[in-house]
Design the sequence.
């Protein structure tokens, strides 16, 4: 396995080689340690990326692994804070190859070209910042219009057997090329970009055994729609979903990517397929025959061992699998097409179909587009246009240019379709929908992945269903959710009934892909003169200043800023929605800190300023303490900081001068994020002590000079009436993490080491 094979043609000459040797070496060690027990594919790839294969504790579903991913990918919404943080580490280049993709900020209004133009205008400062910071730090930059992150990764960067993290939940899409690709929060991406290992709970492995052969109206999408119905939205939590069995052969590479992409909907860490000739064909078609050749030689490590054990096995027979439609409001409510019309009636779902939307990162391959175009062409031959509105979102500029060249775009437009920009668009709610009013009950159907309430159009009354592009296209002609193209006929313009033929398409373009416009910006050779563009007057972006190092003393009489009662998710700590506009501006977004938390006095976003005795908003009072040089603390309940891994939830309290968060229990990721920012996440040793503290108390944190792993700290609580309590607290800091606290943050420590 010791060859110098480049990971990606776009990075030729940069020294980014496929490191199969490390996998081979690591697996030798791990096999010995596991007494040569047969391994799943997921284990091979994950353990093949261990930072320390000799000493890592390996226990599926139990231990935590330190891993060395090969790549990082960020989308433009999450990249802003990630890059700002990376910059403050003071490193000249990212430690692993990294790319940034502009896809989330483009709103669909009228169509691809004008929508893109408007987005470039509105988001100019963000794009300028991303373009210049990428250029400065050696990061590949994909401009707005280039396409959706996961499609571009599949086309250019995914490599069988390698590991990638991405700051987007559907990063697992690259599993279609046999890569272990996981969605993470910005803090994890920053770590890996800065050369730290990435920590992951040793995943369980769920096996999906595919038998039979796919055909007719059934598509790869139906595999995951069916599996989602079986496992539900939580069923994949902590697990990698690994597909195997003879049925795999009847899936195209891009079809496998669709399945892996939507595995995010069942909470899976990621999904992965074994390497096969269908992946080889895709690599060939995307100028990566050298990668296919190398993967072929390494094939023994790109599939499971015989007899490998799964934590759970699900069987799917592709020959018997029916097309499914999932939804509304949740992706795991799976209904086979034969039962769907009845379900629409039984549940009183609006039967009229208002809009059909195909494409997105989930389903915009050449194969998907060619099949949908064939359906559209057949309807057109009968004189029909779509009854519902019909939109097409190409996943990349390459897909768009290729389907334009091959006439599919014309077919779609001829039947009334609108081709949107190569971007997330309606999938992430970037959709200026005009055909209904907010609150109107209505149905739409998409070939996307997520359909939670309000996701696409911010209308909670919209019933969003998810299906294959084939079904979406056919149903758009019927304009009705009760139409089943497998059994029902439509009336042509001539008044005659016709039935759709089974859809047929092309796995890959016969004439090869057309790259379209060049939308990639490679980092320049000489990066020393590049200036990162951040306008000091910007309200969306702000450079980060390093947090102050620990002053070497105990924390004395820190007022409790808020004692939070009950559930406190990262959404309570750092609200989303309109605040996301400020995700690159820590000072502005900090104005949302804990505005959703319920205080012990029963208030929301109203706490007492213990210095003045007056009430104010939580962020306001926090900032007032900070201006007075007075650190403060938060007291919280159980599972504090659960929810998304949003790093702002940890950055904001630190920015506003917080010193510690003391709770009954933490959600693990948030606890780690707090440590990274130099805060002290502390646990009550006795949960009942939570009741002894009030929002009007002051707390001293004692013992910091002897702060050590496994050693408790002590709180001295002074109540309003002057009485005191001493309360023991524990923590989960290890030696390295205590270093973060002392330096003021993990990045401070890294910056120190770099200079
Ligand atoms: Fe974008 Fe939707 Fe995919 S938001 S990355 S197209 S899931």
Sequence:
């Amino acid at each position: 396995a010791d060859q110098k094979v480049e990971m990606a043609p776009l990075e030729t000459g940069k020294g980014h080689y496929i490191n199969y040797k490390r996998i081979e070496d690591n697996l030798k060690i791990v096999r010995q340690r596991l007494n040569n027990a047969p391994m799943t594919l997921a284990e091979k790839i994950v353990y093949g990326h261990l930072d320390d294969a000799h000493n890592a504790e390996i226990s599926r579903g139990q231990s935590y692994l330190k891993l060395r991913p090969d790549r990082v990918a960020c989308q433009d919404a999450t990249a802003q804070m990630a890059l700002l943080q990376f910059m403050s580490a003071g490193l000249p280049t990212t430690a692993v190859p990294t790319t940034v993709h502009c896809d989330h900020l483009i709103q669909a209004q009228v169509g691809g070209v004008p929508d893109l133009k408007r987005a470039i205008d509105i988001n100019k400062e963000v794009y300028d910042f991303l373009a210049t910071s990428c250029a400065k730090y050696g990061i590949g930059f994909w401009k707005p219009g280039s396409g959706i992150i996961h499609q571009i990764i599949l086309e250019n960067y995914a490599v069988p057997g390698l590991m990638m993290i991405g700051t987007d939940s559907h990063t697992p899409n690259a599993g279609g090329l046999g890569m272990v690709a996981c969605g993470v929060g910005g803090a994890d991406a920053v770590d890996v970009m800065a050369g730290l290992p990435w920590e992951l709970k040793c995943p369980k492995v769920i096996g999906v055994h595919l038998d039979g052969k796919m055909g007719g109206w059934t598509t790869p999408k139906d595999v995951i729609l069916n599996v989602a119905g079986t496992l539900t939205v939580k069923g994949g939590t902590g697990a990698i979903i690994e597909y195997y069995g003879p049925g795999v052969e009847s899936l195209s590479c891009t079809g496998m990517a669709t399945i892996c992409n939507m595995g995010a909907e069942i909470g899976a860490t990621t999904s992965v397929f074994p390497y096969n000739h269908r992946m080889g064909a895709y690599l060939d078609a995307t100028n990566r025959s050298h990668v296919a050749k190398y993967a072929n030689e390494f094939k023994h490590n790109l599939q499971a061992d015989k007899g490998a054990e799964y934590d759970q096995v699900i069987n799917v027979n592709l020959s018997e699998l029916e097309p499914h439609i999932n939804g509304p409001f949740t992706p795991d409510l799976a209904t086979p097409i034969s039962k769907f019309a009845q379900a629409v009636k039984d549940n009183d779902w609006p039967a009229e179909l208002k809009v059909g939307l195909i494409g997105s990162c989930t389903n915009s391959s050449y194969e998907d587009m060619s099949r949908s175009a064939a359906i559209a062409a057949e309807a057109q031959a009968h004189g029909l246009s779509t009854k519902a509105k019909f939109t097409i979102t190409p996943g990349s500029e390459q897909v768009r240019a290729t389907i334009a060249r091959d006439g599919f775009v014309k077919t779609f437009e001829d039947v009334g379709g609108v081709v949107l920009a190569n971007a997330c668009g309606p999938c992430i709610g970037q959709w200026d929908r005009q055909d209904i009013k907010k609150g109107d009950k209505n149905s739409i159907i998409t070939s996307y992945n997520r359909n939670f309430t309000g996701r696409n159009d911010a209308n909670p009354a919209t019933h969003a269903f998810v299906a294959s592009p084939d079904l979406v296209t056919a149903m758009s002609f019927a304009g009705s959710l009760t139409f089943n193209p497998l059994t029902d006929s439509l009336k042509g313009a001539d008044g005659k009934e016709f039935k759709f033929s089974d859809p047929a398409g092309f796995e890959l373009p016969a004439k090869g892909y057309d790259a379209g416009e060049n939308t990639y910006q490679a980092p320049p050779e000489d990066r020393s003169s590049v200036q990162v563009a951040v306008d000091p007057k910007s309200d969306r972006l702000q450079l980060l200043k390093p947090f102050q190092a620990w002053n070497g003393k105990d924390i004395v009489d820190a007022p409790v800023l808020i004692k939070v009662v009950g559930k406190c998710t990262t959404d309570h700590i750092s609200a989303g929605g309109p605040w996301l506009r400020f995700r690159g501006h820590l000072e502005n977004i900090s104005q949302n800190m804990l505005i959703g938390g319920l205080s012990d006095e029963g208030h929301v976003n109203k706490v007492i300023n213990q210095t003045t005795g007056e009430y104010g908003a939580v962020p306001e009072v926090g900032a007032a303490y900070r201006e007075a040089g007075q650190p403060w603390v938060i007291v919280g309940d159980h599972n504090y900081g659960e929810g998304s891994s949003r790093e702002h939830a940890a950055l904001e309290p630190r920015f506003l001068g917080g010193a510690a968060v003391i709770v009954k229990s933490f959600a693990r990721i948030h606890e780690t994020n707090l440590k990274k920012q130099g805060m002290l996440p502390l646990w009550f040793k006795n949960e009942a002590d939570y009741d002894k503290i009030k929002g009007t108390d002051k707390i001293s944190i004692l013992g910091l000079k002897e702060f050590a792993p496994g050693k408790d700290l002590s709180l001295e609580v002074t109540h309003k009436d002057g009485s005191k309590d001493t309360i023991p607290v524990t923590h989960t800091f290890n030696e390295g993490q205590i270093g973060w606290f002392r330096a003021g943050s993990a990045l401070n420590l890294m910056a120190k080491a770099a200079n």
About this structure: The longest helix spans residues 366-381.
